[in-house]
Amino acid sequence: MSPFPTDPDPRDPGSVEFADILAAAERISTYVHRTPVLTSERMDALSGARVFFKCENLQRIGAFKARGAHNAVFSLEARAKAGVLTHSSGNHGAAVALAARNRGIPAHVVMPEGVSAPKLASVERLGARITICEPTLAGREAAAARLQRDTGATLIHPYNDPLVIAGQGTAALELLEQEPGLDAILTPVGGGGLLSGTVIAAKGRSPGTRVFGTEPAGADDAYRSFKSGKLTAMADPHTIADGLRASLGPIPFAIIRKGVEDIATVPDESIVAAMRLVWEVMKIVIEPSSAVPVAALLDHRLPLSGKRVGVILTGGNVDLGALPWMGA
Amino acid sequence: MSPFPTDPDPRDPGSVEFADILAAAERISTYVHRTPVLTSERMDALSGARVFFKCENLQRIGAFKARGAHNAVFSLEARAKAGVLTHSSGNHGAAVALAARNRGIPAHVVMPEGVSAPKLASVERLGARITICEPTLAGREAAAARLQRDTGATLIHPYNDPLVIAGQGTAALELLEQEPGLDAILTPVGGGGLLSGTVIAAKGRSPGTRVFGTEPAGADDAYRSFKSGKLTAMADPHTIADGLRASLGPIPFAIIRKGVEDIATVPDESIVAAMRLVWEVMKIVIEPSSAVPVAALLDHRLPLSGKRVGVILTGGNVDLGALPWMGA
Questions:
Q1: Looking at the partner chain, which of A36, A58, A320 has a beta carbon nearest the beta carbon of B279?
Q2: CA distance linking residue B313 with residue B327, whole number of Å
Q3: What value does the mean pLDDT take over residues A154-178?
Q4: All residues at 6 or more sequence positions from A303 whose CB lies less than 8 Å from its CB, including other chains
Q5: Which CATH architecture has domain B18-64+161-313?
Q6: Which of A 236-295 lie inside 8 A of B, CB atoms?
Q7: Tens digits of per-residue pLDDT, B292-322?
Q8: Domain range list for chain A
Q9: What was the ipTM of the complex prediction?
Q10: What is the CATH number of domain A66-155?
Q11: What is the C-alpha to C-alpha distance for residues B278 and B286, in angstroms, rounded to an integer?
Q12: Architecture of domain A18-63+161-313 in CATH?
């Protein structure tokens, strides 16, 4: 998959500037929600910090991914009319479908055989054209390449794309408007789009705010890449946080290694406990990926005691019929 | 139980004026959240209306009851220091406990033998003194009377109290500030505190806004009282909406019969389906009682097609280990 799937950019294609995030915020403002920031005395007491939860689970399509997809789709120029393409069957797939519908152009989503019925239905409901492929990376890439050739559609990468990164950065930009002067912002890290966008947003808007990544211990390639300074792919991720199994992308990594304060890892047991606690105490539905930074706070894995901490709750798409605390 | 448990009021003790709601809003503002209003394209499409969800499930203690309890507790004068008392083991019990803690006075909560451990823990965590009684109405009332005699604590009724009603009315007052000019507001009705407070708030702030009650078919005493014009108690309620099993109180009824447009009833199957849909689509945790007005909208039981409709989502306190759609 090309690392630069969108229109050529006259600048260094790997760079994202604060101005790009400001432009993204403007570009996407009519299509995405300004999500609320919630607080909870009990979560504060349990974490020992003052925590501000940016509720991207309440975002369109139930995830922050709506931001990056809209920025990428609405940045397309002449090529737009041929449509857009992705092979994510998760939140990014739904986000691209929604953004294309809002722009009035076709969206093609490649999904593997055996994809769950609710995932398929949610992308179909958004008007995307679905192509079912063999459930392997090779099958997916072949199907995407064929579609791209046949339709001329532009591939929107879920994270290794400066426009997607700039879009994701608008969540932190908003959070820092809603709660100025935070000591820190925590996000989960999978492919790195959100974490890298958050770095650029924080440096531009609030240079004193430190940015931390949080990652499942069973998919800790970002942690290892950050510590070694060398991008290391994740061969065999094992975590309940299905949104974070992707390997860190090279464009996000270049931003993260320079701008992130530290990355903490948390085990799946802590992720599930944090997820259930947020549902119970805060009355919001979050998916396991969203619970990763919460788990890091509750387990005191970062030096944030007494600090004002923003947490980006990334999404709320879960199968309510198969919750991790239900008996098998 | 006395219908007028709080300090004597020089006016007609059954009356609640719009000014009382404005005063309540001022009195409680530092203790309760200004809850967000959420919208959802998909909920609009399914209901055929434009719906604004006032998220009192995100309120302190996870329910709008925090409003009425704070208004009643902070209105007490000399008697306050002897503390307050309630025998609700649900949201009102937690609300009174929190309000008393915030005022720095004792709270006594009478709970029946066999009350669930999470309910007990949540009231205990708020610092209330718990008295366990026999699980009958007589046992509860005897325990409350004894406590009242021994301590001098003031009983805070969950709904048949003008100050509680005025506090509950602040939810609709806020909603009408956040979304002016709504065509209608829907609330569930159990004892009637929220519905009657909503009537007073709407008449005062937005006379063109019609107020509708919604009630489980298995606990339809408000519906029957409204239709017959005669207050009829609920002998044997059967509904999953545990917050709505109480019988309508006389003070709320006097307000409701004059000011409510209509009351719709919905079966439990519709309540559970609406509850699950809200979790899935809107990513928020609501309890069955909150789903009652949503079910009325989804089942098109009220003439609201194409209208701008406010719905008060009353609470989010559920046992996550025993959701109604989990297998037995």
A1: A320
A2: 26
A3: 97
A4: none
A5: 3-Layer(aba) Sandwich (3.40)
A6: 276, 279-280, 282-286
A7: 999 999 999 999 999 999 999 999 999 998 8
A8: 18-63+161-313, 66-155
A9: 0.91
A10: 3.40.50.1100
A11: 8
A12: 3-Layer(aba) Sandwich (3.40)
